[in-house]
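User: Can you recover a sequence for this backbone? Please restate the input before giving your answer.

Assistant: Of course. Working from this structure:
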């Protein structure tokens, strides 16, 4: 009698593992699969020992998208923004790119009263890559996703500089994520 109950319980357990109403697998399009799952060569994500996860913004065509990255625990705001100057092999394979130039183009990133201040070198501020709107949008999106930051001010060697907003205007005032809303992917 015990064997009969054991078999009945096992059959009920197996039956409970199926998808109700479905006898076949359902195929979904590549555009519905998270980008990292489509890359058969991608190694599994290995967390940085003692690191932390953050959200950063990269470009998917002309759209700014938010992705997760792991950074060293002690990494500061300058490290986060400097890290935007490159994409990983996995990000590149997914078609993501960056408009942020070399890490040596930024002197410092500081935070005061909820406003991050990004200080470019004078040369970098004059060239500001080939797509200044994408560069500024990517930096603003990334910084305002960090705790305690609501807006970003841009300077070159300490002097305020004009930066573009997605409405086509220029400003030397602090800018927020909302100033680039039309470029941001819907979340």
């Amino acid at each position: 009698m015990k064997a009969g109950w054991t078999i009945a319980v096992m059959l009920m357990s197996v039956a409970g593992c199926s998808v109700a109403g479905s006898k076949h697998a359902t195929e979904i399009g590549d555009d519905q699969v998270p980008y990292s799952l489509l890359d058969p060569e991608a190694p599994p994500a290995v967390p940085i020992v003692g690191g932390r996860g953050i959200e950063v913004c990269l470009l998917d065509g002309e759209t700014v998208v938010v992705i997760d990255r792991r950074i060293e625990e002690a990494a500061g705001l300058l490290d986060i923004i400097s890290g935007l100057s490159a994409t990983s092999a996995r990000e590149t394979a997914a078609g993501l790119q960056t408009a942020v130039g070399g890490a040596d183009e930024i002197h410092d990133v500081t935070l005061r009263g909820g406003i991050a201040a990004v200080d470019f070198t004078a040369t970098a501020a004059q060239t500001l890559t080939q797509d200044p709107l994408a560069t500024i949008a990517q930096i603003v999106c990334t910084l305002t996703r960090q705790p305690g930051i609501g807006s970003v001010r841009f300077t070159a060697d300490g002097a305020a500089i004009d930066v573009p907003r997605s409405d086509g205007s220029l400003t030397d005032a602090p800018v927020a994520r909302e100033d680039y809303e039309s470029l941001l992917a819907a979340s």
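That completes the design. The CA atoms of residues 15 and 23 lie 12 Å apart.
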